[in-house]
Each structure stands twice: as C-alpha cells, then as structure tokens.
Amino acid sequence: MSDQAPLPKNNEAGTAAPAAAARAAHHNPLLQALAHMNLTQLTLLVLVLVFLWQWFDAQHQLNQMQQTLAQRLAEIDGSNKANQTLAMQNQEVVRELGGKLSLLESKYAETQNQRAALESMYQDLSSSRDQMVLAEVEQLLLIAGQQLQLAANVKAALIALQQAESRLQRADRAALGGLRTSIGRDMDKLRVLPDVDVAGINSRLDNLIAMVEALPLAQDMHTAETVAAPAVQSSEGGWQKLLREIWQEARHLVRIENTQKSEMPLLSPTQAFFLRENLKLRLLSARLALLSRDEASFKRDMKISQEWARLYFDVKSAAGTQFVSTLQKLNASSISIELPDISGSLEAVRHYRAAHEKGAR
Question: Across the chain, which distance is largest between two alpha carbons, in Å?
Fold first, then answer.
C-alpha cells in the first residue's frame, strides 16, 4: 500500500509542465507567431535577422573608417604644409648652393688655368728632371748671394744654401756630388763668421727712440733752479735787517762767470719739438745703417746723438744718464763683418748646367 501511493503525484507533475507552457504561449504573441511558423519561415526570419545585424555592423565599421580617414587626412594635410615649408627652404638652400657652386667652378677654372700656365713655364724652363733641379738650386744660390751682398744677412744666405744642398741631396744623383761639395764649402765660410746681435741692437734703438719724448731739457732744469731767500730772523733788529738787505742787493750787482765756457743754447718750444724729432731721425738712420751693416754710418749717427744729448738735454737726470749710457754701449759695438765670397758654388752650378745642356743636344 505504501509503495503505490506516490504514483498519482508523478503523473500530475508530468501533465502540469505542458499545461504551464501552453498557458505561457497563449499569453505571448511572439511565441504564438513562432509556434504557427513553419521551418521555411523560421529560416527566412533568421536570415533577415543576420542580414540586419551585418548591415548595422557594416555601418558601424564604415563610421569608424570615416573617422579614421578624416583623422588621417588632417594629419596628411599638416604634413603637406610642413613639407611645403621644407621644400621652400630646400629650394632656397639649393639656390644658394648653386651660386656657390658657380663661384667654385669659376675659381676652379681659374686655378686650372694658372696650373696650366705654371706647368707650361716649368716645361719651358727645363725639359728634364736634372734641368729642373739645377734651375732650383741656381735660384736658391742667387737668393743667398743677394742676401749676403745687398743686406749682409748671413742667416738668410745660410738658409738658402742649406735648402739648395738639401734639394741636391733629394735628387740622389752621383753626378751632383761635386756641386754639393762646393755648396758645403760656402756654408762652412758662413758658419765661422761672428754673430752680430742685430735683433738686440735694434731693440735698444727702439727703446732709445721711445725715451726721446721723456728726456728733460737742460734749459728747463736751469730755469727751475731758484735761489731760496734766507729765513728772516724774527729776533734781528732794524740795523741787522738793513745790512742783510744791502748785502743781498750787492750780491746781485757783481757776478763772476767763466767766459771760456760755451753758453747753453736756449730753445723755443717749436725748436725743442724739432730737436726731439731730429734726434729720432738720427736713431732711425742708425737702424738703417745697422740693417745694411754700414758701421761707419752707424757710429756717426751714434756720435751725433750723444753730442745732442749732452748739449741740449739734462744728462744728470736718471733718464738722461740711461740714454747716454745706452748710446755709448751701442757706439762701442761692432756691426761690420767681412763677408766671404760664395759665388764659387753658383759658378759650379752654371758650368754643370751648361755642360748638361750641351750633352743633351
């Protein structure tokens, strides 16, 4: 009995579910419509829904693409403006470079013409390597002789001879050994010459020229000397004061001088100016004599400068003492040297060059 009692309950539950579904379908119109559709209509409905979903999705993607395209177009527009600005700047740079290129081309053409002219001159001057070397050596020896004869510049002449000897050494020809020996002998002659400190003497002359403006005139120093009146004694009486004044007046009435001594010349301001300028010209003349190794003219200018300094300037002052002392030292220095004859190497080069040209013919 207890086992058969639950069966009627299960049947009731099974029949209750379809009944609830039927009631729900009766109350929902969409479910009622779906219930009355067949398979074909359901398929068409699904296709329409899929098409609508794809159409909405395509419209959404199209809107996004339009926004992206508009953004890209704006970026491209900005880039185009920047590119146009850069293009204009590049055009300006290209125009400037074009002008510079034209200038460089003209300079290059001018350089090429000069180079062609120089090459033509070298070819006309010498037809072989030996002839060119001999021409260069001869030119250097001519420079050495001119420096020695015209300016007495031993250092410049020695440098020119060294360059000529170095040029023959680079040629590395045994036939040129005799010329190198001759140039070496002339170089030895110049090396044993005494060294004259031309730069030091020239510097002293410059200092003297600068000191001329500051030298005090002798007449100014004598004018500045004044006789100071003796101090008046407050305790002296009237007779003592009278006698002192009579004595002072008597001292000015009688003056004893050495008539054998020449009087110091008195110069006006204009004459003093020209005196200083003439003294400077004497010192400049001494410099020219130094550079040309003219010892006689150099010593004459030094002597005249000393005489003018002692006659017109105060040589007892510090500046005057230094000025005269420097003049005496310069006058005692020797600037003249006996220059040797270095024409032997030049004659040897010319003889060798003439013999070489004769053999080439």
Answer: 191
* Structural domain of 60: 43-125
What sign does the dihedral 127-129-130-131 (CA atoms) show? Answer: positive
Report the Cα 297 to chain-centroid distance in Å: 40
Shared-domain flag, residues 159 and 170: yes
Examine the domain organization and report whether 74 and 141 are in the same domain. no
* 253 against 243, higher pLDDT: 243
Q: Are residues 319 and 352 in the same domain?
A: no
Residues 6 or more apart from 324 whose CB is under 8 A from it? 306, 309, 310, 315
* 300-353 confidence digits (pLDDT tens): 999 999 999 988 888 888 888 999 999 999 888 877 777 788 888 888 888 887
> Would you tell me how many other CB atoms lie within 10 Å of the CB of residue 89?
10
CB 137 within 8 A of CB 179: yes
In tens, the pLDDT along 210-249 reads 999 888 888 776 555 444 445 445 566 677 777 877 787 7
Beta bridge mates, 217: 313
Tokens linked to 216: 């005090």
What is the structure's pLDDT at 9?
45
In contact, 296 and 335? CB cutoff 8 Å: no
Which H/E stretch holds residue 342?
none
Statement to judge: residues 80 and 156 lie in one domain = no
Distance CA 314, CA 3 (A): 164
Q: Are residues 102 and 173 in the same domain?
A: no
5 is a domain residue: no
- Report if residue 279 sits inside a domain: yes
Count of domains for the chain: 3
Measured between its terminal Cα atoms, the distance across the chain in Å is 160
Residue where a domain terminates, one of 125, 155, 171: 125
Out of 70-84, 112-126, 206-220, 272-286, pick the least confident: 112-126
Same domain, 119 and 55: yes
